[in-house]
Input
Amino acid sequence: MSPSALPEGEPAPEDGSLPASALAGVAGRRLSAYVHVPFCASRCGYCDFNTYTAAELGAAPGASRADYLDAVAAEIGLARRVLGEAPPLSTVFFGGGTPTLLEASELGGLLAALRDTFGLAPDAEVTTEANPDSVTPASLARLREAGFTRISFGMQSAVPHVLRLLERTHTPGRARDAVRWAREAGFASVSLDLIYGTPGESVADWRTSLESALAAEPDHLSAYSLIVEDGTRFAARVRRGEVPLPDEDDLADKYELADSLLSASGLAWYEVSNWARPGHECWHNLAYWRGDDWWGFGPGAHSHIGGVRFWNVKHPRSYATRLSQRHSPAAGRERLGDDDRHVERILLELRLAEGMPLAVLTDAERGRLPEIIGRGWLETRGDRVVVTHEGRLFVDAAVRDLLG
Ligand SMILES: C[S@@+](CC[C@H](N)C(=O)[O-])C[C@H]1O[C@@H](n2cnc3c(N)ncnc32)[C@H](O)[C@@H]1O
Ligand code: SF4
Output
């Protein structure tokens, strides 16, 4: 996970050590690894992820690909020392940026370092994100050989004017080719990301994108409404009145269309923005949503170990410099109190199709539940509370009202 703005928090110790309370029992819990690759060929106007083009990084020492690879390898060693008796990794996820701007051998090298240092659980899910135009049949075959089991392509749309507004560099057909190549290379699970609500996108355009994605027969699909992130070129265009803000009713219609076409094709929703063929849910994201432990490697990456959240310095140069001086790259951290963990649990678990145990709710929350159920947003199923079909569109409001 690597949102671009870092939160406030207390300073993190230079040696990266964690409180004994966070480490207690770590060997008996599940552990995931996220590796943030902060490089992109060009910056899409809507994206505020922590990523840099070659022109932005320049030729100054400390920010090269080689520096990055050395620094992540050093952070892997540091994580091992800090965690002590850690379990083998249940999931590994390389995200970006554009991980596949690195050579398959470089990604494979980092994966091997994680495997040698922590071990991988049997059946570990090992994912990389990829831009459709950053892979070839040969590079996909090398990623498979290196141990990647799952790949997620940022397709976004199949409509030329939408791709243009999003400043995507690939053609509409490239994502479908990439899915076919990934299958031929032997990937067991292939996912596509789509974005809806781009200004100028009609409902018919969105249907075209969904149908085109489904024609590629992905195992998993994420559909996100376009978020206007402060500080992006896209936000500046909205502010200048060049493009309209996404319209709520239009977004609701498009969500409904996505859900009906995807479920009719055998992709069931398991989180508000995610659908999968049974058995192809993303275990890495489920680990975040269920509050497991994960270590985020790389510039700006966030980690969570036993109720302590910490996050790395953002810039690749500061990140590499810290590690070359044998310092932790963590910029700050926060300890989640019981109340924080409770709120977080409701926020994340109510977005899941499985919902959450009623027993987790406080008396006050249980008191507010009937009113929200009356509105048709939540329902109880046995001893669990789950979001309804209609409620999926209002899940943030449902959570807010439940928390009071
Ligand atoms: C950060 S990207 C990394 C993947 C890869 N670089 C790509 O673009 O294909 C991960 C996903 O986040 C989503 N995303 C990024 N910025 C977004 C925004 N402002 N609104 C909605 N979705 C966004 C896109 O769907 C994208 O595929
Ligand atoms: S390629 Fe992906 S990570 Fe890079 S700028 Fe575009 S959306 Fe963001």
User: Anything to note?
Assistant: Residues 40, 43-44, 47, 49, 51, 96-98, 131, 154 surround iron/sulfur cluster (ligand 2) (CB under 6 Å). The mean pLDDT is 95. The first strand starts at residue 31 and ends at 37.
